[in-house]
Write a structure and sequence with these properties.
Length: 342
């Protein structure tokens, strides 16, 4: 990975509202899958939604196996199916992993079922801002529960945000909070917002969340991914991913909340275009801290300058007269094969 942060988007595929939308969704999901692979060039795709939609996404990736660019890993991050057959169908369609919340009472059972179906479980741990120093202990606990190290661990931080509701303002007044900020839990990976949540105003990030420092020993043992949430614009997502890289994280999961209007209008075409532009910009090697314009001062044409030089030499008479208006200086016997030039 050459020390670079891997970037993977979280994609929530909405449920169709009518039969016509259900027929059109398959094409939209296939187009979304293709764009995430070829345009966004994401390292993986964390997808949630109906099992059929996720399988359509994964099957599209499998169609390019053996080609370049090849398929990207698809990770299911929705509600864990209760039937083992559903897990096997996800695996058969090409899904490589499944996100399992470490706080789930059936965490070990879900991980065991995923491994039995042929998928890799990816534990998701929630860490509060005042528990960042315990990240090492949390990872150790997860690994001990599984009995082995997982392929990677997803760390989701509790966000610090500002709620515009009246209840939040009353709580802030009671707590005498001068900074006018409150802690709210982040929506976990794969959770589809309810109609009540969609009607609420978006959370505005007013303070950076303190990130745990991932040691090199821990990072070499198991890759650590971080949940990245930032309001798009003014390079905020880029600054947030840079913080995760500096903290030692291996990769970043760009949450669906980064997409403008995600909760109100989850249009798949707009989602694919946003991630294509966003991830492409984050992976760009072009400097975004300064800009300059290089002007080429070599405006002279080398051939023209050489021709001018020859003309100057000829006109100077250094190699003899250029024209012979009268008799030539040296007699020329054309009849016997003498020629002025070749």
């Amino acid at each position: 990975m050459a020390g670079k942060l891997t970037l993977s988007p979280e994609i929530v595929i909405p449920e169709p509202s009518d039969p016509t939308a259900l027929l059109l969704q398959s094409t939209a999901v296939q187009s979304l899958s293709e764009r995430i692979r070829t345009r966004a060039k994401a390292n993986a795709a964390f997808v949630s939604g109906s099992l059929g939609a996720v399988q359509t996404f994964a099957r599209e990736q499998e169609t390019v196996r053996g080609n370049f660019p090849g398929p990207i890993p698809v990770v299911y991050c929705g509600e864990i199916p209760s039937e083992p057959e559903d897990l096997e169908e996800l695996c058969e369609s090409g899904v490589a992993g499944i996100v399992v919340r470490a706080s789930d009472p059936d965490f070990v059972e879900h991980c065991t079922n995923a491994l039995g179906a042929g998928m890799q479980p990816i534990p998701e741990v929630m860490i509060a801002e005042d528990q960042t120093s315990d990240c090492q202990a949390v990872v150790e606990e997860v690994c001990s529960k599984l009995g082995s190290d997982p392929v990677c661990i997803l760390v989701t931080m509790e966000q610090i945000g500002e709620d515009e509701g009246e209840e939040a303002e009353e709580e802030e007044k009671d707590d005498d909070d001068d900074d006018d900020i409150m802690a709210i839990p982040m929506v976990q990976v794969g959770e589809v917002p309810t109609p009540e949540e969609e009607s609420k105003p978006a959370v505005k990030i007013t303070k950076e969340v303190k990130l745990p420092t991932i040691s090199s020993e821990l990072k070499q043992r198991v890759p650590i991914l971080g949940s990245v949430v930032a309001t798009p614009g003014e390079n905020r997502i880029g600054d947030e991913t840079r913080r995760f890289k500096e903290a030692g994280f291996t990769g970043g999961l760009l949450r669906a909340d980064c997409v403008p209007g995600f909760r109100m209008n989850p249009d798949l075409d707009m989602v694919s275009m946003f991630w294509s532009a966003c991830i492409g910009d984050l992976k760009s090697l072009k400097s975004k801290s300064f800009s300059f314009r290089a002007k080429n001062h070599m405006e002279k044409n080398q051939a023209q300058e050489w021709a001018k030089y020859q003309m100057d030499v000829i006109e100077s008479g250094a190699i003899g007269a250029a024209d012979h208006e009268g008799e030539p200086d040296v007699p020329v016997d054309i009849m016997n094969g003498d020629y002025v030039g070749f």
